[in-house]
Design a protein that fits this description.
Helix content is 60%, strand content 10%. It is an alpha+beta fold. The protein folds into two domains: 11-121, Multidrug efflux transporter AcrB transmembrane domain (Multidrug efflux transporter AcrB transmembrane fold, Up-down Bundle), CATH 1.20.1640; 180-274, Alpha-Beta Plaits. The protein has a four-stranded antiparallel β-sheet, covered by helices on one side. Helix 1 packs antiparallel against helix 2, helix 1 (11-40) runs parallel beside helix 3 and helix 2 (45-71) packs antiparallel against helix 3 (79-114). It starts with 10 loop residues before the first helix and ends with a strand. It comes from marine sediment metagenome. The chain crosses the membrane at residues 12-35, 56-77, 89-111, 148-168.
Length: 276
């Protein structure tokens, strides 16, 4: 399926395979466990396989389709996000579809043909297992008897999750700690190239004097380039690359704050910092 969809083995498709690894066995476990339950009740192999697969078939199909419905739309997203996650979304969807087909066809057939002829023995139960089962039964009974309280608790937990999520922040991709950052200086329009070069050189010397900086590279003015962006080029714009000796984010933030504070005294000079 991956070959037919034009998906190669890359970081995103391998990530999708790794993500689907745990989901692949879920359907088979549910079906096989239900077949085993019917065998424990006295049904023969074929009857237990038919009843077990039929009883949970609808639930297994519904749960798998809901999971596929989460990932599959990512394959149709436009822009950079669609290009990044298309391979992963399709890989997960393909893996889940195949696991569903195996769970409702191959597993019941193999269980009816090669299962144990004798009834399985009841597994032993430990003290912890008995305590957990009884505690869960009491908790479930209390939740079902107090439906309003259960719904209110779930709503409060959902509201708390939304509040926490808003404080985390969102971004398409996390910034990589590469131990370097870019600086763009933009003076007032009409500033001559010599003045822009002087401002950039002063900032370069200040950055190079920091013991945590490895090297600094800068260029002033880019308006003569044919492919230059009119809004990000000109004799009043200078750029520099600062490489750190280590990838420590704390040290890099300290250097950025020092450079930002040193440029605030220059009237009309705007400074922006970004990761490469």
């Amino acid at each position: 399926l991956m070959g037919q969809a034009g998906i190669s083995l890359n970081i995103m498709s391998l990530g999708g395979i790794a993500l689907a690894t745990g989901l692949l066995v879920d359907n088979g476990i549910v079906v096989l466990e239900n077949i085993s339950r019917f065998r424990a009740e006295g049904d023969d192999l074929v009857s237990a396989a038919i009843k077990g697969a039929s009883e949970v078939g609808g639930a297994v199909i519904a749960s798998t389709l809901t999971t596929i419905a989460v990932f599959l739309p990512l394959a149709f997203v436009d822009g950079v996000a669609g290009q990044l996650f298309r391979d992963q979304a399709l890989t997960v969807a393909f893996a889940l579809a195949i696991s569903l087909a195996v769970a409702v066809t191959l597993i019941p057939m193999m269980a009816s043909a090669s299962g144990h002829k004798t009834l399985p023995r009841e597994p032993g139960s430990s003290r912890f297992g008995r305590w957990f089962a009884s505690s869960y039964a009491r908790l479930l009974d209390a939740a079902l008897r107090r439906k309003a309280m259960t719904l209110i608790t779930a709503a409060l937990m959902l509201a708390g999750a939304v509040v926490i999520l808003r404080g985390i922040g969102t971004e398409l991709l996390p910034e990589l700690e590469q131990g370097r950052f870019n600086v763009m200086l933009e003076a007032t329009p009409g500033t001559p190239l010599e003045e822009t070069d002087r401002l950039g050189s002063e900032l370069q010397r200040r950055a190079a004097a920091n013991p945590g900086v490895d090297y600094v590279y800068g260029v002033a003015g880019s308006g003569n380039r044919i492919d230059a962006n009119p809004t990000e080029s000109g004799e009043n714009i200078a750029r520099m690359l600062v490489a750190m000796k280590s990838s420590s984010s704390e040290l890099q933030d300290a250097v950025i704050n020092d450079l930002r504070n040193s440029t605030r005294a220059v009237a009309g000079l705007e400074t922006s910092f970004s990761a490469p």
